[in-house]
Structure formats: structure tokens, C-alpha cells
UniProtKB/TrEMBL annotation:
Keyword field: Kinase, Phosphoprotein, Transferase, Two-component regulatory system
Source organism, top-level taxon: Bacteria
One Gene Ontology term of the molecular function aspect: kinase activity
Record PROSITE patterns: RESPONSE_REGULATORY
InterPro entries (UniProt xref): CheY-like_superfamily, Sig_transdc_resp-reg_receiver
SMART domains named in the record: REC
Name under which the protein is recorded: Histidine kinase
The keyword Endoplasmic reticulum appears for this protein: no
UniProt organism field: Pseudanabaena frigida
Amino acid sequence: MDTSGIINQSSSGFNILLAEDNPVNQKVAMRVLNHLGYQADVVSNGQEVIKAIASKSYDLILMDIQMPEMDGLEATQYIRDLEKASQQLPIAIVAITANATHDDQYVCRKAGMNDYISKPIQIEKLKKIIQQYESLKNLKST
């Protein structure tokens, strides 16, 4: 079952976009998010990320690094350039990748990503990251 394009609204009002090209990884990530009480919109490549953020406001993007058509690094750089040009507040972007070296983390941060989580996704680490950015959103809105 392809979960691309499924639109869900988090009951918490915290909008998450999951960018992952592998259908199995999409399902695993969605199960973890649902277990934590979140839902997400799902896209399969960086170009779909760009389209999604043009039509909806997201609080967090969980971005796979290696995707077809436009990878996560290129999509992040595009988003950061777009935000600067339009003077928008930056969307929190968290890299999700199987590569867990310090060099990979550096490349992700250099591209403009805020944080980094390695595969397989650890539930507690993802929970901590989401709660961190959800808390920041709540502080900004008060």
C-alpha cells in the first residue's frame, strides 16, 4: 500500500510532514508517530516536499536524505532559500538517514537542517525531538 499523499491532521495541531521514499519506512515512521500521538502528511521526494509546503503550513519536516528526483539536502536548501527570500520563519527540518557519522551530521546541518535522527528510528529519540520543536512552536505563539 502506497501511503504517498495521505493527508492527516495531528490532533495536537502540530503539523508534521514526513518525506520518505521507501513505502516500508513510511509505514514504520507513521506507526511510530501514531504511537506517539501524532499524524503526518507523507510525500516521497523533495519535489513533493516543495509542493506540500506551498499548500500547507508545517511545523516540522522529517526529511529522508536519499530520495529520488530531489534529495533531502537539496530540498532543505531550497526551502531555506525560499524562507529567506520571503522573510518567513524557518520550518524545523530534521534529517532521517541510515548514515550516522559526524560528517553526515555536518552535511545535514550545513544544508540547513535543524536536527538529525538515524535509522532505525528510536521511539524515545523521535519523541524528544518532536516535543522540543512542539514546545518551541508553543513559545512562539504565546
